[in-house]
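In the current project phase, work has continued on tokenised descriptions of protein folds. One protein thus recorded appears below exactly as we store it.

——
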Amino acid sequence: MSAYYQQGVTAMAGGTAAAPPSDKGADIAAYLNSAYPGASVTANSVWIWVINPVTGQRMLVCYDEEVVLTQEKTAAGTKPIDPPIGVRVEKLMTIMSP
């Protein structure tokens, strides 16, 4: 993760930052493909309650799809990820008063 962060900071400083990928599963899988080839997108509408530990605010969140990473590229080649890792995009929307 730190490598991705550093690449982003360098790109922003140089004015060459690309637009971020959309939050669609296929776009996320394509974006991660260079480091995590063969990712699959699964549809799994799951509703969960998320509680903000600071404010106590409860939010009902729905995940429509998930990108499942099953292998990772390393210096030695591609190795499996066991168990696979699910990647989702979370968006927190808040209403702030002036």
Notes: The CA atoms of residues 71 and 80 lie 4 Å apart. The chain is about 20% helix and 40% strand. The two ends are 35 Å apart (CA to CA). The helical segments are 2-14, 25-32.
